[in-house]
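Format notes (please read before filing issues)

Several people have asked whether sequences and structure tokens are stored in separate files. They are not. Every record keeps both together, in the order shown below: the sequence lines, then the token lines. Line labels are part of the format and must not be stripped during preprocessing.
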Amino acid sequence: MLDDDLPGLRLRRLAGGHKNRTFAWDGPDGEICLKLYASGNRDRAIREYRALLHLADSGITAAPQPLWHDPNPELPAVATTMLPGQAVPELDEPVSALRSIVSVLSEVRRVPVGPFADTPRVGAAKDIVHRLMGTWSGQLDDHADDPHTYDMRLLLDAWSECGAAATLLDPAPRTFSRGDSNLSNWLWDGTTVRVVGWEFAGYSEAAYDAADIIEHPSARAIDDARWISLLPDLRVHDEDSRRRFLAAQRTVALRWLSVLWQRRIARADEFEAQRTRVRDLLNHDFL
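Then the structure lines:
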């Protein structure tokens, strides 16, 4: 029922949303965005609402304004103002939005962690490290006869030996984070970029988040040289932050390889491209 428009309720289905459903609602005061969360995602609903309240209190205008939160146990909801713009990966020239993206990220980095001081972002460095060393390693053991397993194991071992995990598990100053690096949530109106989707928000660190956005598949439309040139704006500007960035870049790239490994037949070209990227990152200090 929630996969299509619901004209009787004045709801127009919007693209994206992953497991959730997002609609434009023609309310009495104009169109607003209504996000309905999948069953079991109550924590993400309240996390997003709190993040938007915190951003509004901090003067961030590149995020939607929170209107209300309904903690219904079966279908929690968050309503926000509607933001204009086109998703960055859909642009003819995604690079046109890059400086605005980096500017917004810089603003968000200056927001205090506040109510998220003890809440790590979803997909935190520690979680990814443990997933690679535990879950994926076990999955490779279960597919010992697969023709790709030997090479995947070599790459996983090379990553383990390069010290990236130990580097990321060392404490670092905490920064507020969106927790989601998908550029499909960044909307460009030709002048300004704004960002939706804050349900994974929490604390993180600057170097890890910089690598996380650069290594997200949606960022491939923008060449690496442009990203790397703007690293100082993302607080990757000295020897220690660059060391942590490289560790994070290798780790996040390997994480995406592990995701694509599970779809290595259906998405063979993407899998091979990601394998090459991981190998290159493990063999060079920087792209």
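For reference, the curators noted about this record: Residues 239-261 form the longest helix (23 residues). The chain is about 40% helix and 15% strand.
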